[in-house]
Amino acid sequence: MSAVFGRRAMRSAVLALALMAAAAFGTATAQADTVTVSVDRAHIMKLPDRIATIVIGNPLIADASLQRGGILVITGKGFGETNLLALDHNGHVVLDKTVRVIGPKGSNLVVVYRGDKRETYSCAPQCQPRITLGDDPAYFTPTLAQSGSRDGQAKAR
């Protein structure tokens, strides 16, 4: 009777270890399937050469551009998560990843709150306006207009 019980205990222990290993491997796989990029920043990935089409679930969160040689450029556009699919020439899904877009990082980033209004500055070495999603519209809109006007002037020359 104790030999049967011993075998059951051994099987249970092996099963428990297998489940723990599977859970640990599953967690690592889930993390590997997520690409994290900051808003207004780019992330580069190397894809297999057979990729023909890239699909982004929500283009307000991220954008992707497939370049020659299987280089994929992912750009963070808005906060949140979306999915990225890479298809081959036959329409088969070769890659399925989650793209997580987070806030800007950097030691030179300064956020000023005036009540419920927010302004963002890049301070390297002097503080200059840096428009960021979530900034107050009274700050964001004129700063964006100045930036757009400057860009238009540069392209006209």
Task: Describe this protein's structure.
- The protein is of the alpha+beta class.
- It is 32% helix and 40% strand.
- The protein has three domains: 1-32; 34-102, Immunoglobulin-like (Sandwich), CATH 2.60.40; 109-156, no CATH class.
- The protein has helices spanning 2-32, 137-156; strands spanning 34-38, 42-46, 51-56, 62-67, 71-76, 80-88, 93-102, 109-114, 117-123, 127-129.
- The strands form three sheets. The protein has a four-stranded mixed sheet. A three-stranded antiparallel sheet has the order 2-5-4, with no helix packed on it. Strands 8-9-10 form a three-stranded antiparallel sheet.
- A hairpin with a 3-residue loop joins strand 9 and strand 10 (127-129).
- The model is unreliable at 18-31 (pLDDT under 50).
SSE inventory with pairings:
Blueprint: H1 2-32, E1 34-38, E2 42-46, E3 51-56, E4 62-67, E5 71-76, E6 80-88, E7 93-102, E8 109-114, E9 117-123, E10 127-129, H2 137-156
Parallel strand pairs: 1-7
Antiparallel strand pairs: 2-5, 3-6, 4-5, 6-7, 8-9, 9-10
Cα Rg = 24 Å
Q: Gap between N and C termini, in Å?
A: 92 Å
- CATH class bucket of the largest domain: Mainly Beta
Q: Beta-strand percentage?
A: 35-45%
Order of strands, widest sheet: 1-7-6-3
Count helical runs: 2
What's the CATH architecture of the largest domain?
Sandwich
* Average pLDDT reading: 83
Helical content class: 25-40%
Number of beta strands: 10
Question: What is the number of domains?
Answer: 3
- Main beta sheet: 4 strands, mixed
- The CATH topology label of the largest domain is Immunoglobulin-like
> Order of helices and strands, N to C?
HEEEEEEEEEEH
Which spans have pLDDT < 50 for at least 5 consecutive residues? 18-31
Assembly state: single chain
Shape: globular
Structural class: alpha+beta
